[in-house]
Queue: 2 jobs
Job 1
Amino acid sequence: MPELPEVETVRRGLAPAMEGATILDMVVRRANLRFPFPPRFQDRLIGQKILDVGRRAKYLLWHLDGDETVIVHLGMSGSFRVSAINERTKPLGAHQHYFAQTAYEKHDHVMLVTKQPGGQKFEITYNDPRRFGFMLMEDVRPHPMLQKLGVEPTGNRLDAALLSEIFAGKSTPLKAALLDQRYIAGLGNIYVCEALWRSGLSPFRAVGSLATKNGKPSRYAAPLADAIRAVISEAIDAGGSSLQDHRQTDGKMGYFQHRFAVYDKAGQACIKQGCGGIIERIVQSGRSTFYCPRCQR
DNA sequence: AAGTGAACCTGAAGGC
DNA sequence: TGCCTTCAGGTTCACT
């Protein structure tokens, strides 16, 4: 499912149920996702207060009171559901009784019950059919998983100068380079395709062409930086993109998928004014690329 | 170094 | 109805 805008949407959905709340109880229903769960995972979380829910690229960061951080990645199919617990209709008693009456859905792997200082309780469920996601504790900081990440696409650092700097002299195709989290962290297949279309650049173009011979930004750098920032911001505002089963944490759909220009549009007319091209699907390093061969050069 | 393909895993969709 | 193939929002690893 999730690229940066979807993960940010999840973060915003988790925040009201987690930030400032205490973890009352937790159930982990299998030994591993993509990686084994951390040793004594429940013991280290139950009773802890969550200070805030952060995000770095596609990683969620649960900053705990006890100076530990939980790192969560949603992989391809991970999602969270959050629901307020109404104790009138679902009396809790001792909280461990709560899960006994919970109806698990298929692929629900982790469940948490949190309680805000005001008393409101929440049930938070992690579901992940393909299990490419994971949950880790950040024992070493920064966690090795986060050390190699490049700049955030929405931060102030992503501009024409930075693109020309990090890509100068390289011959990698733009498509592959933009998917590489070591350069820009958070883009995935959808938003790379969309950003390239918006900037009129071919997915085959060598990234080195974003820099001139003396290392300054070429005329292609600023349009790409602007397109990346715009498409990510707009997608976040739209609550992400809902393909297949992706939902926001409250069950609502994101709606950015209605604004795709090229992603999954093979055979359709390019919507750029006066272009007249037909969107093509090709494969680059094992991933689908959707682009307009006419206006993306 | 850079590029490709496979691997991890399940489910949906399409062809026959 | 079922069976088979292909594909999917990510990342890492093994190979040329």
Note: Helices of chain A lie at 4-18, 41-45, 96-100, 144-147, 160-167, 174-179, 189-199, 221-237.
Job 2
Amino acid sequence: MVDSDDLGAVVISLHTQGHDQNQRLQFNVVTADKGSSVYHEADEAHYWYEVVRGTVRTCRILADGHRQLTAFLYPEDVFGVDGPVYRESAEAVTDVVLRRYSIGSNHMLSHPLDDREAILQRALESARRSVFLFGHRTAANRIAAFLIVTAERSSMQSGVDLPMTRCDIADHLSLTLHTVSRTISEFARSGLIALDGPQKMRILDLDGLHRAAAGPDSGPGTSAYLLDESSNSTDPCVLA
Amino acid sequence: MVDSDDLGAVVISLHTQGHDQNQRLQFNVVTADKGSSVYHEADEAHYWYEVVRGTVRTCRILADGHRQLTAFLYPEDVFGVDGPVYRESAEAVTDVVLRRYSIGSNHMLSHPLDDREAILQRALESARRSVFLFGHRTAANRIAAFLIVTAERSSMQSGVDLPMTRCDIADHLSLTLHTVSRTISEFARSGLIALDGPQKMRILDLDGLHRAAAGPDSGPGTSAYLLDESSNSTDPCVLA
DNA sequence: CGTCTCCTTGAAAGCGTTCAATTACAGTGG
DNA sequence: CCACTGTAATTGAACGCTTTCAAGGAGACG
């Protein structure tokens, strides 16, 4: 299940420097090749990152050798704010462009104080999303919910990109790649989605997908309209 | 599975006021009776909380009617920092004593700036713990990991308190209460733990429990010693 | 054209859920 | 003090979903 990618060395290229729009946060623009590692679990944390383009995964290897993907990160997501030591590894799912920010020697985020909160809140949001995914019991529930979340976070219109492998999805949802593949194929067969190659999806029936996420035979009164009018956050949270 | 507790009205009593040791954070001490609700999902967030005594659970009701417990919170844990609107409900598992802090009208935590980060980091830590639990695939894995985490966070020496019901545990781990009950009984039969009543546990074989968390037949090389020397945080994180 | 990686699919086995029944225990009222 | 009641926990048996084992297919690359 781990399929150890033998990630080779850290492949990061430094490109440019810049500031955010308020001229307060200083960063470097760095790139990492698909499959390469941005940082490793247990490394001392000198930087934290923001995704500019591409997809990043954070992961841990458990005691039994299994791999757990704790999050997929898309443009505008932040990662590496764990603390003075990284709790997870971060790897490039695709070729990625990142902004890299320094962490001060006191192990606090080196920023104007009123930005720290926003940064951490974004990270908290991201963690909460992962927790919510696991409220779903069956494989079909979790995978449907994952596809919906991924679609919402995907920048592509008319077509959702699934940049990660089936194995990545499986390790994210605590399933096997077989079950993931089977279930996605099943969704395609039943007309909920269409697949243009394994990594390219179009959602044909969003309501149906919500129903698949909610349960095996979600009663008519429990359709997925408990949706969260999520307030200040950038993207809505899927409850279904 | 939800076993709707009909939680009645919010039962909170205001007691005293105080400051933290640095004389900077102002709070009220409030209590809530076992089973009562501290706040509801989608309520406007006027306060955030810190547990002083007892246990709190945060939960959401999914579109299909199932209940998801996103966290159990013990003394020193914080909750209710979601944002301007609570994303989850919070309920008292036992009679609890809480510190209640105001959230400013700008929806930011109303505190000296350099404390905000610590508060959010604590919340992030708590969310991360929940994510980690789901890295475990089988029911036995997850339950063993849950028992270990709970034991570490339990204040009791020589005996671990399980203040929540089997149903609560099930809704936290996305299992049924039957599987939870069966598996815990099985752990007791095989000598890993001892039960003095359903809510009182003693761990007899911590290594064995770690092995049960790691996998069905964790090889000799993969014993649970990948443990995290978690750095600045209050409590160690269980990876097994 | 061979090799590699990833994805897909089939069949059988195992585990967790579901359905169902029993037990334990605390609170209440006779 | 004891029966009654309601909630929580435990346990059994059958079903069904997910995993496991196994094989085959699709696409990229040299």
Note: Residues 1-10, 218-240 of chain A have pLDDT under 50 and may be disordered.
